[in-house]
Amino acid sequence: MMNSTPRVVLVTGASRGIGRAIAKQFGLGGDKVAVNYCNSADKSEALCREIQSENGEARAYAANVANAGEVEAMIDAIENELGPIDVLINNAGILKDNYLVMMSEKAWDDVIDINLKGTFLCCRSVAKKMMTRRHGKIINMVSISGLIGTPGQANYAASKGGVIAITRSMAKELGRYGITVNAVAPGFIETEMLAGMNQKQLNAHLQAIPLGRVGTTDEVAKITSFIASPSNSYMTGQVIVIDGGLSV
Ligand code: NAP
After folding, report:
1. Could you tell which of 16, 75, 156 is best to mutate to test the pocket of ligand 1, judged by most ligand atoms within 8 Å of the CB?
2. What is the pLDDT of residues 129-163, one digit of tens each?
3. pLDDT tens for residues 22-58?
4. CA angle 242–230–15, rounded 5-degree value
5. Where do the domains of the chain lie, and which CATH numbers do they carry?
6. Measuring CA to CA, which residue among 140, 122, 130 is closest to residue 224?
7. Positions marked active-site
């Protein structure tokens, strides 16, 4: 479905997986999409071409979300080239799983840096600009791990729990500027991230999913698109769970 007024939408970590599906959903819906990536330039350019081939508008932007200078430069470039950012989707994220007693300091720092600090840096940079325009929507991709905790994921759970806290604080700070801030918390979604998980643990989780299957990236993209839509005008500070019932 095409949007009557195209918005500028930044999706971080959009080269593959959930971010890719979200970028495609917005791009094919008529919005102008900024496809952020860290390493996967080829995949990101290919995604932009795919969106453009269906008359959509998309452009790839390299930036490590954990690096303040790179984030600021990317946001400035997007606003100069595509226009003011209307929707920010903080999706970039990594896993470095291990049981807490065996977890290296580096695995802790890397996950916190990208998932938590990266979200903070992108929010800070974009929110300043949205505040002056008095509108905007920010959506943070978290995880049920940040709500219920998952063994072997203390770093990841802490990062996502932290982002849920940022979501609520920002909703309270930014509501008066017409900006909504919400989070999407997927359960197990079929992506490369899932392939990197401990498969024995994953199988145990799968048996506990009431809907009996993992989710698809398209299912997450559709929920995200609804949260960002103009029809969703009175929701802020919320965490929307999409997990096939796993956390119930
Ligand atoms: P994925 O397939 O591993 O893709 C991760 C994306 O993040 C890639 O586009 C990657 O870009 C990007 N990225 C990683 N580090 C980055 C950095 N420093 N700066 C900018 N981009 C960076 O992951 P996914 O499964 O789609 O997950 C997407 C989000 O959903 C994550 O926040 C994840 O925690 C969350 N989530 C996923 C699941 C699941 O089951 N898959 C469940 C709950 C929550 P490059 O390719 O350029 O490195």
Report:
1. 16
2. 999 999 999 999 999 999 999 999 999 999 999 99
3. 999 999 999 999 999 999 999 999 999 999 999 999 9
4. 55
5. 8-190+217-242 (3.40.50.720)
6. 140
7. 156
